[in-house]
Write a structure and sequence with these properties.
alpha+beta; Trna Endonuclease, Chain: A, domain 1; 38% strand
């Protein structure tokens, strides 16, 4: 699959999971919004940007962490390269990805150009680590 197909599959998995949990999803017409879909939670609308997560494995071939590229790229700059942009709270509320049958929601203000979600605890823990379990759909949605 190419990157567009992988992104589309992740988006479909996220939408399907929200439907399974009983939430309504609205998809904007066209492909010109910064968000991929809107999630209706108890009458409150949240703009979500769906991103495919790359799985990184440890030396025992166990999934150790996910990396999500939480940026968008605009047209060419003067030196013929893409320019990375950071999403803002005005554009989206959450990034969402799908892994192992569940969705994981990350508030946009917790991200820069990429976000790492730890599946296994790191060897050298610190306060800036985000564990995957803290972003799990049902836990995050209960607080909304």
């Amino acid at each position: 699959m190419d990157t567009k197909q992988i992104g589309n599959l992740t988006e479909l998995q996220c939408i399907t999971r929200f439907y399974e949990l009983g939430y309504s999803v609205s998809i904007p017409y066209g492909d010109s919004e910064k968000y991929d879909f809107i999630l209706d939670i108890n009458g409150n609308l949240y703009k979500l940007q769906c991103k495919h997560a790359t799985i990184h494995y440890n030396e025992n071939n166990e999934p150790e962490f996910l990396v999500i590229k939480t940026r968008w790229q605009s047209g060419y700059t003067k030196n013929s390269s893409y320019k990375d942009h950071k999403y803002t709270k005005q554009e989206i509320d959450f990034f969402v990805t799908h892994y192992n049958g569940k969705n994981y929601l990350i508030p946009v203000e917790q991200c820069s150009l990429e976000k790492t979600l730890r599946i296994l605890p790191p060897k050298h823990p610190n306060k800036t680590i985000t564990m995957l379990t803290t972003c799990e759909d049902e836990e995050v949605l209960k607080k909304m």
